[in-house]
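Weekly structure sync, notes
Attendees: PL (lead), two postdocs, one rotation student
Agenda item 3: pending single-chain targets
PL asked that the sequence for the first pending target be pasted directly into the notes so everyone works from the same version. It is reproduced below exactly as submitted, 98 residues in total.
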Amino acid sequence: MQALRWRLTKTKRKQLVKLVIYAYQNYDLLDCKKAAANAANENAEQNSSLVIEGLLNGPRKVLEYTMTFVNALASECLGRSYLLQKPDLVELLVNMLH
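Predicted structure, written out during the meeting:
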């Protein structure tokens, strides 16, 4: 997770950051698109092993790296639009703060 975040935060060129986010989005790194498709399709099976939920429920160090990665991704408009494809992500993150 840290290496993925560094790819976003250590890059000097804005254009390269956008390309990296496009790659993360294209490969659906955090299963946000799959979650959106399952939410839109009523007959789809619930996928309880989503990547982001697994990372957020992992050990404390994994959680820390995941949260910093999500923060770095959300700092770009393209990253926010990708993250918001997962319908309950904001609710999940707010519940973690409580």
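Discussion points:
- The chain has one domain: 2-97.
- Residues 60-74 form the longest helix (15 residues).
Action: rotation student to compare against the earlier draft before next sync.
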